[in-house]
Write a structure and sequence with these properties.
By secondary structure, the chain is of the alpha/beta class.
Length: about 190
Protein backbone atom coordinates (compact mmCIF):
# COMPACT_ATOMS: atom_id res chain seq x y z
CA UNK A 1 0.00 0.00 0.00
CA UNK A 2 1.18 3.48 -0.87
CA UNK A 3 0.11 6.73 0.72
CA UNK A 4 0.24 9.68 -1.69
CA UNK A 5 0.11 13.18 -0.27
CA UNK A 6 -1.21 15.51 -2.99
CA UNK A 7 -0.21 19.01 -1.97
CA UNK A 8 -2.84 21.70 -1.89
CA UNK A 9 -0.51 23.80 -4.06
CA UNK A 10 -1.57 21.63 -7.02
CA UNK A 11 -5.09 23.07 -6.77
CA UNK A 12 -4.51 25.61 -9.58
CA UNK A 13 -2.46 23.35 -11.85
CA UNK A 14 -3.42 21.17 -14.84
CA UNK A 15 -1.08 18.54 -13.40
CA UNK A 16 -3.62 17.79 -10.65
CA UNK A 17 -5.86 15.81 -13.01
CA UNK A 18 -2.83 14.12 -14.58
CA UNK A 19 -1.69 12.91 -11.16
CA UNK A 20 -5.15 11.58 -10.39
CA UNK A 21 -5.16 9.63 -13.66
CA UNK A 22 -1.70 8.24 -12.94
CA UNK A 23 -2.70 7.23 -9.40
CA UNK A 24 -5.87 5.61 -10.68
CA UNK A 25 -3.79 3.43 -13.02
CA UNK A 26 -1.30 2.60 -10.24
CA UNK A 27 -4.14 1.58 -7.93
CA UNK A 28 -5.10 -1.31 -10.21
CA UNK A 29 -2.21 -3.29 -8.70
CA UNK A 30 -2.29 -2.14 -5.08
CA UNK A 31 -4.16 0.04 -2.62
CA UNK A 32 -3.34 3.72 -3.07
CA UNK A 33 -4.54 6.22 -0.46
CA UNK A 34 -4.48 9.91 -1.33
CA UNK A 35 -3.99 12.35 1.53
CA UNK A 36 -5.22 15.77 0.41
CA UNK A 37 -3.47 18.97 1.31
CA UNK A 38 -5.51 21.91 2.50
CA UNK A 39 -4.97 24.10 -0.56
CA UNK A 40 -6.91 27.35 -0.77
CA UNK A 41 -9.29 26.09 1.92
CA UNK A 42 -6.44 26.00 4.49
CA UNK A 43 -5.18 29.37 3.23
CA UNK A 44 -8.57 30.81 4.18
CA UNK A 45 -8.23 29.34 7.68
CA UNK A 46 -4.84 31.05 8.06
CA UNK A 47 -6.32 34.33 6.83
CA UNK A 48 -9.30 34.04 9.18
CA UNK A 49 -7.05 33.33 12.16
CA UNK A 50 -4.91 36.40 11.43
CA UNK A 51 -8.07 38.50 11.13
CA UNK A 52 -10.00 37.17 14.13
CA UNK A 53 -7.15 35.82 16.31
CA UNK A 54 -8.84 32.58 17.34
CA UNK A 55 -6.96 29.70 18.94
CA UNK A 56 -4.59 27.29 17.22
CA UNK A 57 -6.83 24.47 18.40
CA UNK A 58 -9.80 25.91 16.49
CA UNK A 59 -7.56 26.58 13.48
CA UNK A 60 -6.31 22.97 13.57
CA UNK A 61 -9.89 21.68 13.50
CA UNK A 62 -10.73 24.03 10.63
CA UNK A 63 -7.59 22.92 8.75
CA UNK A 64 -8.72 19.29 9.03
CA UNK A 65 -12.00 20.34 7.46
CA UNK A 66 -10.02 22.16 4.74
CA UNK A 67 -8.22 18.91 3.94
CA UNK A 68 -11.56 17.11 3.79
CA UNK A 69 -12.91 19.77 1.40
CA UNK A 70 -9.96 19.33 -0.95
CA UNK A 71 -10.35 15.56 -0.55
CA UNK A 72 -14.00 15.74 -1.64
CA UNK A 73 -12.91 17.69 -4.71
CA UNK A 74 -10.23 15.07 -5.51
CA UNK A 75 -12.68 12.19 -5.01
CA UNK A 76 -15.10 13.80 -7.44
CA UNK A 77 -12.36 14.34 -10.05
CA UNK A 78 -11.29 10.68 -9.67
CA UNK A 79 -14.56 8.81 -10.22
CA UNK A 80 -13.01 5.39 -9.51
CA UNK A 81 -11.94 6.48 -6.03
CA UNK A 82 -13.60 5.68 -2.73
CA UNK A 83 -13.77 7.82 0.38
CA UNK A 84 -11.66 6.49 3.26
CA UNK A 85 -12.37 7.59 6.82
CA UNK A 86 -9.64 6.64 9.26
CA UNK A 87 -9.84 5.70 12.09
CA UNK A 88 -13.49 4.74 11.44
CA UNK A 89 -12.44 2.51 8.53
CA UNK A 90 -9.75 -0.07 9.15
CA UNK A 91 -6.78 -1.02 7.02
CA UNK A 92 -8.50 -4.34 6.30
CA UNK A 93 -11.08 -2.38 4.29
CA UNK A 94 -8.40 -1.15 1.88
CA UNK A 95 -8.25 -3.39 -1.13
CA UNK A 96 -6.76 -2.63 -4.52
CA UNK A 97 -8.05 0.66 -5.75
CA UNK A 98 -7.85 4.38 -5.23
CA UNK A 99 -8.95 5.81 -1.89
CA UNK A 100 -9.14 9.42 -0.72
CA UNK A 101 -8.69 10.01 3.01
CA UNK A 102 -11.21 12.46 4.42
CA UNK A 103 -9.94 13.44 7.88
CA UNK A 104 -12.62 14.37 10.38
CA UNK A 105 -13.05 15.48 13.98
CA UNK A 106 -12.07 12.04 15.33
CA UNK A 107 -8.44 13.12 14.78
CA UNK A 108 -8.90 15.77 17.46
CA UNK A 109 -8.82 13.02 20.09
CA UNK A 110 -5.46 11.59 18.96
CA UNK A 111 -2.90 12.50 21.61
CA UNK A 112 0.07 12.29 19.23
CA UNK A 113 -1.31 14.98 16.91
CA UNK A 114 -0.67 18.51 18.20
CA UNK A 115 -3.36 21.12 17.63
CA UNK A 116 -1.13 23.70 15.97
CA UNK A 117 0.25 24.78 12.61
CA UNK A 118 3.34 22.68 13.39
CA UNK A 119 1.23 19.75 12.20
CA UNK A 120 -0.05 20.18 8.66
CA UNK A 121 -1.25 17.74 6.02
CA UNK A 122 2.39 16.64 5.52
CA UNK A 123 2.70 15.34 9.07
CA UNK A 124 -0.81 13.93 8.91
CA UNK A 125 0.15 11.99 5.77
CA UNK A 126 3.15 10.58 7.63
CA UNK A 127 0.97 9.78 10.67
CA UNK A 128 -1.57 7.96 8.51
CA UNK A 129 1.24 6.03 6.79
CA UNK A 130 2.45 4.91 10.21
CA UNK A 131 -1.02 3.92 11.40
CA UNK A 132 -1.72 1.89 8.26
CA UNK A 133 1.82 0.44 8.13
CA UNK A 134 2.15 1.61 4.54
CA UNK A 135 5.04 0.48 2.38
CA UNK A 136 5.78 4.02 1.29
CA UNK A 137 4.76 7.66 1.59
CA UNK A 138 5.05 9.76 -1.56
CA UNK A 139 4.64 13.52 -1.23
CA UNK A 140 3.82 15.50 -4.37
CA UNK A 141 4.49 19.19 -3.95
CA UNK A 142 4.96 22.34 -5.98
CA UNK A 143 8.15 23.29 -4.15
CA UNK A 144 11.34 24.09 -6.04
CA UNK A 145 13.57 23.37 -3.03
CA UNK A 146 15.69 20.31 -3.74
CA UNK A 147 16.97 18.42 -0.71
CA UNK A 148 16.65 14.95 0.74
CA UNK A 149 17.29 16.25 4.27
CA UNK A 150 14.13 16.61 6.32
CA UNK A 151 15.58 19.45 8.40
CA UNK A 152 16.50 21.45 5.29
CA UNK A 153 12.98 20.97 3.91
CA UNK A 154 11.51 22.19 7.21
CA UNK A 155 13.80 25.24 7.25
CA UNK A 156 12.62 26.15 3.73
CA UNK A 157 8.95 25.67 4.63
CA UNK A 158 8.51 22.63 2.39
CA UNK A 159 7.58 20.40 5.36
CA UNK A 160 5.96 21.39 8.64
CA UNK A 161 7.88 21.50 11.93
CA UNK A 162 6.15 18.45 13.39
CA UNK A 163 7.33 16.12 10.64
CA UNK A 164 10.71 15.36 12.26
CA UNK A 165 9.29 14.15 15.57
CA UNK A 166 6.80 11.84 13.89
CA UNK A 167 9.40 10.54 11.45
CA UNK A 168 11.94 9.80 14.18
CA UNK A 169 9.31 7.93 16.17
CA UNK A 170 8.54 5.55 13.30
CA UNK A 171 10.38 6.14 9.99
CA UNK A 172 8.51 5.34 6.78
CA UNK A 173 10.19 5.18 3.37
CA UNK A 174 9.30 8.66 2.11
CA UNK A 175 9.88 10.27 -1.27
CA UNK A 176 9.30 13.81 -2.42
CA UNK A 177 8.23 14.51 -6.02
CA UNK A 178 7.94 17.82 -7.80
CA UNK A 179 4.40 18.16 -9.14
CA UNK A 180 5.62 18.20 -12.76
CA UNK A 181 7.64 15.02 -12.29
CA UNK A 182 5.01 12.46 -13.22
CA UNK A 183 6.89 9.18 -13.13
CA UNK A 184 6.12 7.43 -9.86
CA UNK A 185 7.08 3.95 -10.87
CA UNK A 186 10.01 3.28 -10.87
CA UNK A 187 11.05 5.60 -8.06
CA UNK A 188 12.57 8.86 -9.23
CA UNK A 189 11.85 11.21 -6.34
CA UNK A 190 14.08 12.39 -3.53
CA UNK A 191 14.23 9.87 -0.70
CA UNK A 192 13.93 11.77 2.57
CA UNK A 193 16.17 11.08 5.54
Amino acid sequence: MRIIKLGGSLFHTPELRQWLELLDRASQNEAVVIVPGGGPFADEVRHAQRLHRFSDSAAHHMALLAMAQFGLLLADLAPNSQAFYYPQHHVSELEHGLHVWLPDRSLLTMSDIAHSWDISSDSLALWLSQQLEADELIMIKRSTVVSSRIQALIQHGVLDKGFTTLYQRHPIHTQLFHFQQQALFPDKGLILQ
